[in-house]
Structure formats: structure tokens, C-alpha cells
Amino acid sequence: MLIKFALLLRDVCRPTDTIARIGGDEFAVLVEGIDSKAEVLVTAWRILDALKPGCDFGGEPLKVGASIGVAIAPFDGLSADQLFETADRALYEAKATGGSSVRMYDTRPDQYGTEGYQKAGRPSDLAGSIEGPRKSA
Predict the structure, then answer these.
(1) From CA 69, how far away is CA 79, in angstroms rounded?
(2) Is the pLDDT of residue 34 over 60?
(3) Given the DSSP bridges, would you call strands 26-30 and 18-23 parallel, antiparallel or unpaired?
(4) Helix (H) or strand (E) holding 68
(5) CA torsion 64→19→9→95, rounded to 10°?
(6) What span, in angstroms and rounded, lies between the C-alpha atoms of 79 and 60?
(7) What is the sign of the dihedral through the CA atoms of 22, 80, 83 and 73?
(8) 69 phi, psi to nearest 5 deg
(9) Distance separating alpha carbons of residues 134 and 137, to the nearest angstrom
(10) CB 37 within 8 A of CB 76
(11) In which element (H, E) is residue 119 found?
């Protein structure tokens, strides 16, 4: 199952993105060269959308979901450790809400001076300009 998910990530992400399994059933995707938060959310939602049909596992249909935590430099940290910690907090918030969702941890204080989680909706401003997933050969 992990191999199938890794192949799905490869097909959905850009060729310039870095994909790594970081332990258990957790993967990290490093999305570089972006100009906006919406661009990274496009990748996150592509992953969730690609999982919707489920997959075949040993001849049996299997429903698969994912929880995604997002951190963006320099807003959520500058070092790899800071970014990983912030994304990890957002990931566990996504899991706590039932999964199959994207969460960002906003480290910038809001109007009340507190940090918090944001449900990361679909980047509708980019929806018309996004290509579909790449097909593997």
C-alpha cells in the first residue's frame, strides 16, 4: 500500500517536487519555487483528489484517505526543523478533524494575538489554470 501511495505522489506532484517517506505511513513533499500559498495548496488538493477513487489492494477495493499539514517558508519557519514541526502540528490537527483534509498552522498572530490552525480550502483562484495529474509511462 505504501508503494502505491508513493507512486500516486510521484504522479500527482510536479517533477521538481521532492517526495520522501519520513516514517510509518507519513510522507513529506517539498514544493519549491512557488509564489503563493495557493500554489502549494494545489498540490495538497491534487493528492486528496487522487485518493478519492480508492485503490485495489489484493483484489479488494480499499478506500484511502490522507491528512495533510502544510508549512510555508519563510512564514512558518526558516530551518527544516521549524518547517517540519509546523507542518507536523498542522498534520495532527487535520487528523483530529477526521482526516481527508488540509490544514495550515498559522504562526503569525491573529487580531487577538494568538496563533492557530486554518482549514486550507481549495485555491479557487488558480482552479482554471491547473493541469491534471501527470501520467506515468
Answers:
(1) 17
(2) yes
(3) antiparallel
(4) strand 67-70
(5) 30
(6) 42
(7) negative
(8) -110, 135
(9) 9
(10) no
(11) strand 116-119
Each residue's pLDDT tens digit, 42-73: 889 999 999 888 877 788 888 888 999 999 88
Is 11 tagged catalytic? no
Answer whether 12's CB lies under 8 Å from 34's CB: no
Q: What span, in angstroms and rounded, lies between the C-alpha atoms of 96 and 130?
A: 29
Predicted confidence (pLDDT) per residue in 104-131, tens digit = 876 665 554 445 555 566 655 334 433 4
Question: Is residue 57 within 8 Å of 1, Cβ to Cβ?
Answer: yes
For cell 507542518, the residue is: 87
Tens digit of each residue's pLDDT (9 = 90 or more) over 2-27? 888 888 899 999 999 999 999 888 99
Which of 11, 25, 49, 110 is labelled catalytic? 25
